[in-house]
Structure formats: C-alpha cells, structure tokens
C-alpha cells in the first residue's frame, strides 16, 4: 500500500451499492495545505492526503492516483467523481479575479460603493471599506427603467449597440448585468445580457439568473462576485475535466456552497455557487457520520485545517443554511451552508501585536514552506509547531502519511516567539499559542450558537480536519460541552462528505405582499413553476424530492426569517410558523401583520453515504507513551494507533490517538471510547 493512504474495511462486509455509493466513488477536497481524498469501493474506504498545488487540478490528480494505487485499482474503474475546491474563494480573498465590468440602470452605478449603512468598525475613525470589485470607471449605465409593477421604459437598441462598443474598448474579461427591479421584470436585463453574449467573447452574468430577488445592493454584489470568479472557475473546471478524461474518470460533480453537488457545466455557468464549497462538504460529512444523539439538541461541526477553522450547526439532522453570507466582506445572497470561518488553522502563524499580546493568524505558512517543523525552510511559529512542542503530535509522526517533522526547528521557532512575548521558553509559548487558537475558535462557535439563541451545552461537538480533533476537547471544556465525536474519516471528512452529498438545486422568486392579502392559489402556482424549473435541471427528476420555504417578516421589519411551507400553500400556517420562528430567534412575537417576501424551492436527489465500520482491537495496548503538556502540567500520556484502539471499554485521559490523517488529543478529565461505526467519542469523565 502507498504510504500515507489507508484502507478501512466495513465490519459487515456489505457491497459498495449497499454502502450507498454507485460503484466506485471518489471524493476530492482541496484545502489550503493538503488535498484530501476519500475512495469508496467494495465495502472499503480508502483515504489519502497530498500537498495542495498552485494549479489545484494537479494536486487532485496526484491524490486520486495515490488513493487508487493504495486500493490496487485503475482510476478508469471509478464510476463517480465528486470535488470541492477553493478556486472562487481564493480569487475573492486574494483579489485575484477577472477584470469585471458592471452594467446597470442609469443613476444606480454607485450601488456597489454605497452599500448598506451597517459598519463593522463603527468607532474606528480610520476604518476603510474594501474597494469595490468593479471600479467606477468600469461601471456602465443604460437609460431604462422598470418598477416592481412592470417595465416603464424599454432599453434602446442603439444604446445597447453603443454599450457593446464601450465594453470592447474597456478590454474586460467578464461582465455583470444588474438592472433595477430585474428580479420582477427581467425583460430589459435579458435583452442587454443576450446582446452582450452575442457580441463579446467573455462570460456575462445576469442578476435575474444569478439571484432573482429584491434588494438592489445584495443582488448587484452577488452578480458581480459571480462575474468576478467565473473565468477562474470556468478555466479550472475545464482543466479538471480534461485531467479526469485523460485518467479515464467520469466528469466531476462539483460541491456547491448550499451543501449539494451538481454537474460541472452548471457551476461553470453559476460560479458564485462554488464559494465555500469545501467547508460545506465538511458539514455534510459531519452530519452523515456523527449521528444524532437523543439527548442532544444537535451538533456543532468543527473543521480545523491547515489555514482556517470552520464551524456550523446541524439541528434535527438538517444542515443550517443561510442566504446572508459574506466572503471577504462581499455579500453573497445565494443559499449557502451557514459556516463561520476564523483564520486559525494548523499553519496559522503566531505573532505578537503592538500591545504585546499574542495573536494567531490570519496569515498562514501554507504548505510551502509550511510550519517550521516541516523542515522546508519555514521559520515562523505556527499552531502545528506548538502542538509538536506540547507533545500532542509526536516527533516521529508523518503528517499526511509522508511528511516527517523537525522537532528542533519547532522549538527554535517557539523560543523566538517566547523571547518576543516575554514568556519563559518554548513550552510556555506553545501553551499560549494553543490557548489563543482555542479562544479564537471558541468565539466562532459562540457566534453560531449563543448569538443565535442556542445553548452550546445542549449540543455535541463533531471535530474533523487535520487539526480539529487535537483541539476539540479543550474547546469543549471552555463551552461546557460534554461530548466530542471524532468520525472515523475525520482527517478527510470533507472528502468523505462529497460521497454523501445529495444533488441539490435551489430557486427563489420575490413575491411581496401581506400574508392575509395574498392569493394562496397564485402563490402555490409560483411554487409549482419553481419546482418544474428545478426538476428539469436534475439528473434523475423521478428520484427527486422538492421542499418549499418562504421568507417572511413583520410589517416594518427590514429583514426576514425563512420558514418551511407546504403545498398547497396555506397563508395562515406560514404566518404561524414565522411567528414561532421569530419567538425562537428573538424571544417574542407580536400581533403585527406578517408579510411574504420571497418564495423558495429546493430540489434534491438523495444519495447514501458509504458506511464505515469499527476498526479496533480487543485488548489493544498503547503503541508507546510520551510526555504531553496540558494546562495543569506535563503528563506521561498513552499513545494509541487509531486502527488498534481498544474496542471493549473506554480509556481515561490523558491519551493521544494517532491516525493516518489526524490526531485525537483527550486531556485529563476526559475519557474516550470507540463507537460501532468507527467514530471515537470523548466525554467528560466521572472518574
């Protein structure tokens, strides 16, 4: 078997189809440091990690070859290929997208710059908003006008012809078209977009296709993001598809930010849907493998990779989604898994600010040169270096299966940090780095729980990613969470989530009216239109289920809550569901009229996740022991192999459980047991 890849067999030996995969299925997730692979075949789960590459498709191909070699199969025998990548989010974070032009209604070309009145740094006199993705000189206007009631002034053909000439002279790479009230009456916008597509050899994103709902700023911003990342997505997916063809693989299915996969051609036309596709895959994988506990309200998912950490919620088996996300301060209104991201990962660099305080990230050492302990030329201290100095990671550990560690380099980097911060040596600095990183991630968890009316003590914590299981129990301690679940494939759970993700499509249409005045039949007809459009796009419409929702608000409110509705549409039932949701979120309900704002539909073709059985040994003993440092001091700590963990009874902490892709750290005061599905469950000890 290729070093760095692992093969795990299900205890029940069921066939691949019984495991929920259609033949041999492979999922590949690209992270900031590593590219993760999960391959399901014949009742086995093969996992692998390889370093991420500048052209992500190269790392994807390398990871697939590594996993297939470990499994002893030809890549051409794989029947299903799903993929999550960071191309679009990287373009936003690094301001490295296409040279984009915006075409909008006369008098509205500064919408991007005006934005909203909300200010994240209200009292910072020097705070600056990020520059618009489209500067003013590349924003063009057309003299047309539509209102919510209809088109009052059609766009002029001569003006469209003049606009085409202006855009040719501007040497643009992508175009966003967003005209006033095009969500309700797209005629003018469609004429402009069609003319530009016919005349220009560049992609054109139209707001009525990207986000057909009201709110001018959010609709414009989302359409511009789609145009900004679209050439990068189109080029990358094209290269990936070609590599897949050369290897004999099927066309890749791409993970969307909404938690579902779709075909490659669709995301090439709807690039904005790929933002945060990797974190979405992780949440889906956590939901599929962690399992619901009867005494828990839900799950907090915690994914700590090499560059960042992502947290989200799963309640009643449903992944939390939102339509009010922002990436790099760019609003995105398309449906997304509700993920909170912080710049604290294994490769995040520790530093001392001007006030002498220890800080973590958001700058990362990445994969090359990586943390100091990688021995590839990095000298700055990172969270991974701290974990090595503390003994949570062994000096003999091979990260990703084949990356040896340099403990002396890690100690030297932490010693330099200790000198700068006035601490007593590298161990004290490492404890400080570990504590600050945990505090950053704890704040992120509070933002998706406490700040939204949920008590984290009523949830379980699901930890995954290369570094998540190392920090999870300590974070849970700080939140009074008493149970941590580490799924069997925790080190590559986002890749596993790709195998479990349903095929999903979303649609939305604005319909504003007081609920007690709407025509239920007309609203139900609108839902039918949305459903028909979605079913036409699915690979297997006969197997699909369609779910419906409505955005509602009290009269006078500025923003909405989304509630599930059923067909035939019942306005009174929708109003009662909204009132209950409002009371849950804000602790009150009123007698104010309830308004319908948007109608939503989601079509899903379900997929079953591959099953993974327990991997453990009766009477297994620790592989070794080593000294590990915890807040209460150094402890001699038992170290187990993940594949040879005791199957019969819990083990009291402190204990370290090492796997091929991740390490679980169970501190003093906790115990850990092996579950039937191969997950490790750590709980507060009553010993």
Q: Quickly count the helices.
A: 16
CATH class of the domain at 95-232, anyone?
Alpha Beta
- Tell me what portion of residues adopts beta-strand conformation: 25-35%
* Fold-level CATH name of the domain at 95-232: Dna Topoisomerase Vi A Subunit, Chain: A, domain 2
Tell me the helix content.
Answer: 25-40%
Shape verdict: globular
Residue-averaged pLDDT, rounded?
Answer: 89
Q: Kindly provide the radius of gyration, computed on alpha-carbon positions and rounded to a whole number of angstroms.
A: 26 Å
Termini separation (Å)?
Answer: 41 Å
Can you tell me the CATH architecture of the domain at 95-232?
Answer: 3-Layer(aba) Sandwich
Largest sheet: 9 strands, mixed
Tell how many strands the DSSP assignment holds.
36
What does the oligomeric state look like here? Answer: single chain
Structural class designation: alpha+beta
Unreliable parts: 7-22
Report on the architecture of this protein.
The protein has 687 residues and is an alpha+beta fold. Among the domains are: 125 residues, ATPase, nucleotide binding domain (Nucleotidyltransferase, domain 5, 2-Layer Sandwich); 138 residues, Dna Topoisomerase Vi A Subunit, Chain: A, domain 2 (3-Layer(aba) Sandwich), CATH 3.40.1360; 80 residues, no CATH class; 103 residues, Dna Ligase, domain 1, CATH 3.30.1490. The chain is 30% helix and 28% strand. The two termini are 41 Å apart. About 2% of the residues have low confidence.
């Amino acid at each position: 078997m290729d070093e760095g890849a692992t093969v795990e067999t299900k205890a029940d030996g069921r066939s691949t189809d019984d495991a929920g995969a259609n033949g041999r299925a492979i999922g590949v997730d690209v992270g900031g440091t590593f590219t993760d692979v999960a391959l399901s075949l014949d009742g086995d789960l093969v996992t692998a990690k390889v370093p991420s590459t500048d052209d992500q498709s190269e790392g994807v191909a390398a990871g697939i070859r590594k996993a297939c070699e470990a499994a002893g199969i030809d890549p051409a025998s794989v029947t299903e290929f799903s993929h999550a990548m960071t191309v679009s989010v990287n373009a936003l974070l690094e301001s490295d997208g296409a040279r984009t032009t915006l075409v909008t209604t006369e008098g509205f070309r500064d919408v991007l710059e005006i934005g909203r009145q909300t200010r994240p740094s209200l009292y910072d006199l020097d705070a600056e908003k990020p520059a618009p993705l489209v500067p003013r000189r590349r924003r063009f206007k057309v003299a047309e006008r539509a209102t919510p009631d209809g088109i009052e002034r059609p766009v002029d053909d001569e003006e469209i012809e003049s606009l085409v000439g202006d855009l040719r002279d501007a040497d643009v790479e992508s175009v966003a078209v967003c005209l006033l009230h095009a969500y309700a009456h797209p005629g003018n916008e469609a004429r402009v977009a069609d003319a530009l597509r016919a005349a220009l050899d560049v992609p054109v994103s139209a707001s009525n296709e990207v986000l057909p709902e009201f709110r001018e700023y959010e609709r414009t911003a989302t359409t511009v993001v789609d145009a900004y990342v679209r050439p990068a997505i189109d080029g990358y997916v094209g290269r990936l598809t070609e590599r897949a063809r050369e290897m004999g693989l099927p066309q890749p299915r791409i993970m969307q930010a909404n938690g579902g996969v779709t075909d490659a051609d669709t995301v090439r036309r709807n690039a904005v849907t790929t933002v945060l596709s990797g974190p979405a895959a992780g949440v889906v994988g956590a939901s599929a493998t962690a399992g619901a506990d009867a005494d828990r309200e839900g799950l907090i998912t915690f994914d700590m990779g090499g560059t960042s950490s992502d947290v989200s919620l799963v309640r009643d088996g449903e992944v939390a989604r939102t339509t009010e996300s922002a990436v790099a301060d760019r609003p995105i209104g398309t449906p997304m898994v509700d993920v909170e991201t912080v710049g604290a990962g294994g490769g995040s660099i520790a530093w001392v600010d001007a006030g002498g305080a220890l800080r973590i990230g958001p700058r990362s050492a990445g994969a090359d040169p990586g943390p100091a302990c990688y021995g590839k030329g990095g000298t700055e201290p990172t969270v991974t270096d701290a974990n090595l100095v503390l003994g949570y990671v062994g000096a003999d550990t091979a990260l990703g299966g084949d990356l040896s560690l340099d403990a002396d380099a890690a100690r030297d980097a932490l010693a330099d940090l200790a000198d700068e911060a006035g601490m007593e040596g590298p161990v004290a600095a490492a404890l400080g780095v570990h504590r600050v990183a945990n505090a950053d991630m704890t704040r992120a968890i509070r933002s998706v729980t406490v700040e939204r009316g949920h008590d984290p003590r009523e949830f379980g914590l699901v930890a995954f990613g290369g570094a998540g299981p190392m920090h999870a129990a300590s974070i849970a301690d700080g939140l009074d969470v008493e149970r941590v679940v580490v799924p069997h494939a925790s080190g590559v759970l986002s890749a596993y989530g790709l195998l479990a993700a349903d095929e999903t499509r979303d649609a939305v249409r604005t319909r504003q009216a007081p609920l007690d005045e709407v025509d239920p039949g007309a609203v139900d007809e609108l839902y039918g239109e949305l459903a028909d459009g979605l079913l036409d796009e699915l690979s297997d419409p006969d197997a699909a289920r369609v779910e419906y929702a409505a955005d509602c608000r009290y009269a006078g409110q500025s923003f909405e809550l989304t509630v599930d509705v059923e067909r035939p549409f019942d306005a009174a039932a929708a109003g009662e569901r909204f009132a209950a949701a409002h009371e849950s979120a804000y602790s009150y309900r009123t007698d104010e009229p309830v308004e319908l704002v948007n109608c939503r539909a989601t079509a899903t073709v379900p997929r079953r996740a591959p099953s993974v059985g327990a991997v453990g040994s009766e009477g297994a003993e620790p592989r070794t022991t080593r000294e590990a440092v915890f807040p209460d001091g150094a402890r001699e700590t038992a170290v187990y192999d993940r594949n040879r963990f005791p199957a019969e009874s819990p083990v009291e902490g402190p204990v370290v459980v090492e796997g091929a892709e991740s390490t679980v750290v169970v501190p003093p005061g906790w115990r850990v047991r092996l579950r039937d599905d191969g997950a490790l469950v750590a709980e507060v000890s009553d010993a």
